Amino acid sequence: MSRFFKRGIACIPLILAVTGCSTPSHHISSVLAQQVELRRDSHVDVSSCQWRGEVTGSEGRWYSSIFYSNDTLAQGAINDIKNNAARLGADTVLLLSPLDFQTSVTLIGSAYQCQTSIPVNS
């Protein structure tokens, strides 16, 4: 066997380890998170809502773009920001411009509770 082939075979465990570590990690973690509404409309009236805080959501690592499409990374970031908003008891997030990197997606927004019956997750 050629030494390049041997080196390639030797790298397989490393490649598999990196692939396993790069699986999108953010999934919707609760029913409350499923109900969080993400809005980019600057005309949303939140005057009757209670501000809960700033939230972020991100997905991806420096190697993620090798294994996952931008759609997959974006969905992971959406799930993450919804989970974080639900933990604050928010049901609506007004998104700022997303931070798109070549290897990851990050969302930033302001979380509000606009309905009256949203409990805060601890």
UniProtKB/TrEMBL annotation:
InterPro entries: DUF4156. It comes from the Bacteria. This is Outer membrane lipoprotein. It comes from Vibrio hangzhouensis.
